[in-house]
Specification:
294 residues, 12% helix, four-stranded antiparallel sheet
Length: 294
């Protein structure tokens, strides 16, 4: 009763995402998702929380992961695109993600100089090593690259529609889906496309925050297992087109109806329990439901 309407991968943590028609879902998420990360001289990761201009970096990666391009959202800024041969053979270095130490493969001086100039702060680019063995927590444990936590962030359009209703009631402007940086966006099947089954089965995808209750779901050839709710932070305040903070929304409005004991929540995180190919248009087949947390 629901389909995938958007797949977004974020090759470099904190930078802009790219919508794709299809992707292989690996144990660590969509292909190449958060495989790279920008760090400061001390190895601590950079985030839009403190460096909102990251949103203006448009990275693209080749299908085999061997080539990475960094481009500015506005070429007239004077920052030409940088094309890199990705290395996995360079020495490893310690990097810090939320206070936990992992390893990263430094991608060299050209990448460091380009990012330092664009962000206005000393920066380096690292890649997840092939031996990266990070374990993620939640109801269904898994792994991920440099994502904040679990491999996949799933969000329904119905959840955003409800937020838009609440924003309108407060006289606040509507916000784009990219404020929440999901990997998989789901929506109801188009009207008239449900056939006989649609006449007999409630349209669960039209229920706001239905993703909170999904425990196991098959999409395309892959399967997801629920990990936890997505706790929202100051990144949602960043206008992804401007690369700057845009005001108190959506956190101000979400706090009025989406506050859990552990934070303001919007969307859900999932672990990959069966890798496989995903495509826009794939049906979401829920195999198990549960009660929403919080």
């Amino acid at each position: 009763m629901a389909t995938v309407v958007d797949l977004i991968t974020y090759p470099v943590k904190g930078c802009a995402g790219t919508s794709v028609d299809g992707s292989h879902l690996t144990p660590a998420g969509l292909a190449h998702d958060r495989s790279f990360m920008v760090v400061g001289p001390d190895g601590v990761y950079r985030s839009q929380r403190r460096d909102p201009r990251l949103a203006l970096v448009r990275p693209t990666v080749s299908a085999d992961g061997s080539r990475l391009t960094l481009a500015a959202a506005e070429p007239e800024d004077g920052h030409g695109a940088l094309h890199l041969d990705v290395t996995t053979a360079a020495p490893r270095r310690d990097v810090d993600l939320f206070g936990t130490t992992y390893q990263g493969i430094d991608q060299g001086e050209e990448a460091a100089a380009w990012l330092t100039d664009f962000l206005g702060a000393p920066s380096r680019l690292v890649r997840v090593p092939p031996e990266h063995g990070r374990q993620t927590d939640g109801l269904t444990p898994g792994t991920s690259g440099y994502a904040d936590s679990s491999a996949v962030h799933l969000l329904s359009r119905a959840s955003l529609d409800l937020l838009h209703t609440r924003l309108t009631e407060r006289g606040a402007p509507l916000l784009a889906m990219d404020r929440f940086r999901p990997n998989i966006v789901i929506d109801s099947l188009p009207e008239g496309a449900q056939g006989d089954r649609g006449a007999q089965t409630p349209d669960w995808a039209a229920e706001p925050h239905v993703e909170d209750r999904i425990r196991r779901a098959a999409i395309g050839a892959a399967e997801l297992g629920y990990a936890k709710l997505a706790v929202r932070c100051a990144v949602t305040l960043v206008d992804q087109e401007a690369g700057a903070r845009g005001g108190p929304e959506p956190l101000r409005t979400l706090a009025t109806y989406r506050r859990a004991p552990f934070g303001i929540v919007f969307g859900a995180k999932f672990a990959v329990t069966r890798p496989g190919k995903l495509s826009v248009g794939d049906e979401v087949a829920v195999a198990e439901w549960g009660e929403a947390e919080g």
